[in-house]
Amino acid sequence: NGIGEDFAAAVLDCGDTGRLADLIAQNITLRHQDRQRVLEELHPDKRLRIVNDILTHEVDVISLESEMEQKVRRRVAQVQKDMILREQVKEEYAARIQAADLPEEIHTKLTKEVERLGKQPFGSAEASVIRNYLDVCLELPWHKFTRERADVAQARKILDKDHYGLDKVKQRILEFIAVRQLNPDAKGLCLVGPPGVGKTSVALSVAKAMNRKCARLSLGGVRDEADIRGHRKTYIGAMPGRIIEALTRAGTMNPLLVLDEIDKLASDMRGDPASALLEVLDSEQNGAFRDHFIELPVDLSRVMFITTANTTSTIPRPLLDRMEVIELGSYTDEEKLHIAREHLLPKQLKENGIRRGQLRLDDEALRAIITDYTKESGVRTLERQLGKLCRRAAMRLVETGVK
Length: 403
Hints:
Distance between the termini: 86 Å
Low-confidence stretches: none
Number of strands: 7
Shape: elongated
Mean pLDDT: 84
């Protein structure tokens, strides 16, 4: 580069080695010591070899400089790209925070986190932690509430439609719904009874009756307090606790949370989850619940809690004091017959693709299944037996080619 056409032509035309060496050394930029070396060598061939060595060295230097320049350009481009990406992410989160219309304390905290994110290299571990934190906080339904239904008569209709019998239980639940309208700080419910009597489905019906969103979380075998209250966000793979996760799933701040199997909570050296639940279920404390991951006060006072258990004997006494216990007893055989006819059989027929007319079960057959093939307080095994019958019928229908 930078060599004139006349000089290039002169080099190509030159046939004398000494003359060629002098011509090249004369027309290119060289250090004084290199020029001196060429002048001191009188032998033409050796002089040209010295010039060749100098040129080879110069080419190496130029290629090294070019490589360094490319590296610098790439680095500058990467830094610029990183800055643009960081700014884009920062602006995106700032816009989401603005749109969320958050309480002042939460708005300030998240804005600080966004400023911190703007100073981290894009894609770094610290940036990932902050982005995960911001995502979790912004997914929480801070200002979303469903309009609660206060109609006890409507609630009675829904409970009667979804569940046969349980008259005393339904009456207690309707009283509970009525009290909740007058005093939102009333205790939560604890539905206690043997497996399969419909504790969880009663809780889901209450949510439907009160027009609340519902989220269910099972506490069976939970032995770590962090399961309820979350891990600090600095830990690898940290996530919020089950309460915050359930609120996000429900999508409102006044859902009905069904805490299943509260009698099967355990505890070990990682803390006592029952102690964390004390704050959650206490209407006087849960107005500013702090999850370890979120590190912000979350108002649980509008949340309605219904817990389920097989027995109250293993529930810690302080926890039991924060709940109103409703016992669900065993079903009689006649109640089971009605439940099978009205609820379980239609459900199993539908699940197994059988039309009503293709399988008929009279009351005597249902009674025989109840007395001879099930030994339970609830109806879970009964539903399984009806499912088995429907599958057997489906097999027969396919084999005989009945459509």
